[in-house]
Amino acid sequence: MLHGHSSALSLGAHPGPAARLWSTAARTLQQHPFLIKTVASGFGFAFGDVLFQLGTGAALPWAQPAASSSSRSKAPIDWRRAAAMGGAGLAVAGPVGYYFLMWMEANIWTAAPHCTGALATKFTLDQVLGFALWHASLAALHEPHRKSCAELARWPARQLEQHSQRQRLQAAAQAAAFKAR
Questions:
Q1: Where are the beta strands (DSSP E) in 6-127?
Q2: Over the stretch 53-62, which tens digit does the pLDDT of each residue have?
Q3: Rounded to the nearest 5 degrees, what angle is found at the Cα of 51, between the Cα atoms of 130 and 74?
Q4: How far apart are the C-alpha atoms of 153 and 113, rounded to whole Å?
Q5: What's the N-to-C CA distance of the chain in angstroms?
Q6: What's the CA angle centered on 17, arms 13 and 20, to 5 degrees?
Q7: CB-based contacts of 83, cutoff 8 Å, min separation 6
Q8: What does the alpha-carbon distance between residue 112 and residue 10 come to, in Å, rounded to a whole number?
């Protein structure tokens, strides 16, 4: 006991740094939701691109071409691309995401906007939109990703064509077998 007080502080009397930070963040979010959403999207897009570069091996020093020793001395992460992705998050995904959230609040599960189903639905839709915007931004900035996205977009048509071709071959084989009888 110090000066007649317990040495253990209650959280309500003197909040710790984490509680003060949380309180400040909550207050700032209430006062400036658009700003917080856009800045968070900018950081999220940049950080996501760095993780993408690391995860795909593009940014790993041992995955770089060994043509010369100078290629290994380059920065392992393409920071310009990460900054451009951050800019896309700040300028496009943040504002679009913010207004999409406002639209969802006004139009989805309006009778019980904070029930588990409503929150799960809104969270899922927000993540799907974010995923689409992130990949669209990366495809706009990075040629190999653009080519991969284009191939992925053509995949269903190729599958349908292959299926149609198999059906035509089966029909031809059945017709030939019928004529042979």
A1: none
A2: 888 876 655 4
A3: 135
A4: 35
A5: 104
A6: 70
A7: 46
A8: 35
Task: Report d(CA 54, CA 60) in Å as an integer.
Answer: 6
Task: Using alpha carbons, select from 109, 93, 118, 115 the residue that is nearest to residue 39.
Answer: 93
**Token pair for 37:** 């959403």
Q: What is the pLDDT of residue 144?
A: 87
Torsion of CA 173, 178, 179, 181, to 10 degrees: 130
CA distance linking residue 151 with residue 52, whole number of Å: 19
Whole-model pTM over 0.85: no
User: Is a pLDDT exceeding 70 seen at residue 66?
Assistant: no
| CB of 66 closer than 8 Å to CB of 72 | yes
Q: Which residues pair with 2 in a beta bridge?
A: 5
Q: What is the mean pLDDT of the chain?
A: 85
pLDDT tens across 89-134, in order? 999 999 999 999 999 999 999 999 999 999 999 999 999 999 999 9
Q: How far, CA to CA in Å, does 33 sit from each of 77, 116, 134?
A: 31, 22, 21
Structure tokens, 58: 């593009």
Q: Are 78 and 53 in contact (CB under 8 A)?
A: yes
